[in-house]
Design a protein that fits this description.
The protein is built from 15 helices and no strands. It is an all-alpha fold.
Length: 419
């Protein structure tokens, strides 16, 4: 299959998978009573936040797939998957045991922790298969995995909701959909020699090697970095939430700016598929192309809002805002999302090449934005906050580039000395 055709199919499948994930909410809202739907939405939101670490596992698997021979890479991935399953199984048991206390403040039954935990655990092998396909450059199969999972989860959740009218049962149906999806993925792609899924307590001598311990340690740090980046990209909304005079308008603009973010996320995975582990100078071009693409998307969105912003907000939210203010605020909000698209790509790229910059730079950005949040007050001008947020995000991009440059220089020097 030609690369152009492959990418078009990947794009269509990815859009379809995202649409089906989104479609879950409006469909369940019509099948469940209000209280049941609210509980289901809260539970799914918790699952979404807890699943943020999965993209780090996908990126790490991409890097491992590109390293060494296929057999050795597969063996390492299988062992990593086993270790991650054991680690998160322990964490999930802890989560289940404390769910009564965790869910009490949000008035959610502790039983909702069961489907959340199962789906979280099953997401690990699915994420590893996604990373494995991406590392092999099989973008169509990568998107197919997402489409199969979202389709079956939606289908069985809808069936369960239709039969029971119960939110917990609906989530259990979604969980069963994930089980069926995992089985179907293994069946459909068995010719791709996928890494084996297993949980073994005994015979774990490989896990005690220095290499595997280092890999597990890096995975945990990388997961924290991805968690930080995912949380920080909504920091603008969290800051404005504490400003009663601005929060309503900014929430509307924020929703519009998120469209740019979600549209751009799709293009990160083809970028990571092109990453060259050995000759990293070859990665400059795809990274630059991604930055240009994001910039063009952002410029188009800003132009659209500058021309038709008042009509868009009136149509979507039933509220019209002054066009001048709308143009200024939306421009900064969209730029912020574009910068975080680039930061997300750089974080995942660093995970593919196994650089600790994926942890340290998000930590530095988090410190900067947290400081900003503590220093701002209701009297702080809205645009000033957005300007500082954008400068902080831009600084993060600069830190990444400087760090990558320094690491590459050290790596080149080391390779020269070894040769």
């Amino acid at each position: 299959m030609k690369k152009g055709t492959s990418f078009i199919i990947f794009f269509i499948f990815s859009i379809a998978a995202s649409f089906l994930n989104y479609l879950t909410y409006p469909i369940l809202s019509r099948l469940l009573q209000s209280a049941e739907f609210i509980n289901t939405t809260v539970a799914l939101s918790l699952l979404s936040q807890m699943s943020m670490f999965l993209s780090s596992i996908v990126a790490l698997t991409i890097g491992l797939t590109k390293e060494g021979s296929e057999s050795s890479a597969k063996k390492t991935i299988e062992q990593l998957q086993q270790e991650l399953m054991l680690i998160f199984l322990a964490l999930i048991l802890l989560f289940l045991g404390s769910s009564v206390f965790i869910f009490k403040p949000i008035s959610l039954e502790a039983s909702f922790a069961i489907p959340i935990s199962i789906m979280l655990l099953l997401s690990i092998p699915i994420s590893i298969y996604s990373g494995y396909m991406n590392g092999k450059g099989k973008l169509v199969k990568l998107a197919a995995i997402a489409l199969i999972t979202s389709s079956l989860q939606l289908l069985l959740a809808v069936i369960a909701a239709s039969v029971s009218g119960n939110g917990l049962v609906s989530l259990l149906g979604m969980t069963m959909g994930q089980v069926v999806a995992l089985c179907l993925i293994l069946f459909l792609f068995k010719s791709d020699n996928l890494p084996r899924v297993s949980i073994q307590i005994k015979n774990r001598s490989l896990a005690r090697t220095v290499e595997m311990q280092a890999l597990i340690k890096y995975t945990l740090f990388a997961s924290i970095g991805v968690l930080l980046i995912n949380i920080l990209q909504i920091s603008d909304l969290l800051i404005f939430k504490a400003r009663p005079n601005d929060v309503i308008m900014y929430t509307d603009i924020y929703i519009i700016s998120r469209v740019v973010f979600f549209a751009g996320i799709i293009f990160i995975w083809p970028l990571l598929a092109k990453v060259d582990i050995e000759d990293r100078h070859k990665n400059i071009k795809p990274l630059a192309q991604f930055a240009v693409l994001v910039s063009l998307m952002g410029a188009a969105a800003i132009t659209f809002m500058a021309i038709e912003g008042e009509l868009i907000t009136k149509t979507l939210f039933g509220t019209a805002y002054p066009q001048v203010t709308l143009t200024q605020v939306s421009s900064y909000a969209i730029i912020f999302k574009c910068l975080f698209l680039i930061l997300t790509a750089l974080t995942l790229y660093c995970i593919v090449i196994r650089s600790y910059l994926a942890f340290w730079v998000p930590l530095i950005i988090a410190a900067g934005i947290t400081t900003l949040a503590c220093m701002t007050s209701v009297a702080t001008p809205q645009l000033n906050i957005l300007i500082i947020l954008n400068l902080t995000a831009f600084s993060g991009v600069v830190f990444f580039l400087i760090g990558l440059g320094i690491e590459e220089r050290k790596r080149s020097t080391q390779l020269t000395q070894e040769s």
